[in-house]
């Protein structure tokens, strides 16, 4: 095993815009979403995580919120190909990662999370890194949280396995 590798979640502005245009198009035509389709909500954005190597072991989350608020991170399955298909609810993975900072927390206070869910979520992402070079996530911002106030990354250690990425 080698040292820790920290990967930052990066906003995918183009994919977020495509998904917002889908919502706008449906509204303008008075049409309904496809059965099971997951539309992007106004307080959500699409982020991506690029994996430089397939053999990763989850280490820890590194989430910073500049002020009080709540961030919920939901992963999409490897079956979603955003350039070909609409996002379907069945393609959203559980558990989600929920991170928050309370209004009374000091500036140096750690961000809170549901530890067991966050750990399981991180392990699931590491498993999927073995078969994907990139993963997409929905970031939901609430209670004063916004893209400008969030810095999110996930740390892994190299596992040393040979992988099997598609």
Mean pLDDT across residues: 90
Helix content percent band: 10-25%
Report Rg. Answer: 17 Å
Percent strand equals 25-35%
Shape: globular
Helices and strands, in order, run as: EEHEEEEEHEE
Specify the number of helices.
Answer: 2
Describe the sheet with the most strands: 6 strands, antiparallel
Spatial order of the strands in the main sheet?
2-3-8-5-6-7
Distance between the termini: 23 Å
Number of DSSP strands?
A: 9
Unreliable segments of 5+ consecutive residues:
162-166
The structural class is alpha+beta
Give a quick precis of the structure.
The strands form 2 sheets. This protein has a 6-stranded antiparallel sheet.
Can you tell me about this structure?
It is a single chain. By secondary structure, the chain is an alpha+beta fold. The chain is built from two helices and nine strands. The strands form two sheets. Strands 2-3-8-5-6-7 form a six-stranded antiparallel beta sheet. A three-stranded antiparallel beta sheet has the order 1-9-4, with helices on one face. The longest helix is centred in the N-terminal third of the chain and has 17 residues. The protein is globular, with a radius of gyration of 17 Å. The two termini are 23 Å apart. The C terminus is likely disordered.
What are the defining features of this structure?
34% strand; 166 residues; alpha+beta; 6-stranded antiparallel β-sheet; 3-stranded antiparallel β-sheet; 2 helices; single chain
Break the fold down into its secondary structure elements and pairings.
Blueprint: E1 4-8, E2 10-11, H1 13-29, E3 44-50, E4 56-65, E5 69-75, E6 97-101, E7 112-113, H2 115-129, E8 134-142, E9 150-158
Antiparallel strand pairs: 1-9, 2-3, 3-8, 4-9, 5-6, 5-8, 6-7
